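Bug #77: duplicate submission created two jobs. Keeping one. Sequence:
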Amino acid sequence: MNGSNRLATLEPYPEHPSEARHKANGHAEKPAQKLKAKSSETANRFSALNAFIDFVMADLTRAELAAWLVLYRDTRNGVVQASIDAIAKRTGTSRQHTQKAIASLQRRGLIHQLKKGSINDGASIYRIKPLSAKDAITVHPQVHSNHTPVGGR
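Kept job's structure:
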């Protein structure tokens, strides 16, 4: 079967179950105001992600990179609650490598542990430091100021 026939047989992505429930409960689409606020938040997240990729990512180990991505993905309002075991499972790294990665991310100033988790008290809480190109250079001074990020921005 050639590529064009394969594309013709692809089905569109199915509706996410939460969207189906939302519609089934008679909820209307979100008002434009909320969408606009959310798009600003999304733009800020993409800006931080771009700065991370352009200025920081190349010098991280696989475990550090994976741990940061998991924490960043789950961040709400700059804060995330996650256990070492949960991060290790999602990143495919050992518990020991995950602990070292989290400690390294803290030393580099990329995350800050607000609360240390325990069996009785739940998972740790981390604050993901928001990154801009300027912050990334400050956090990662070995990247020269004349560094051109991917895409030439």
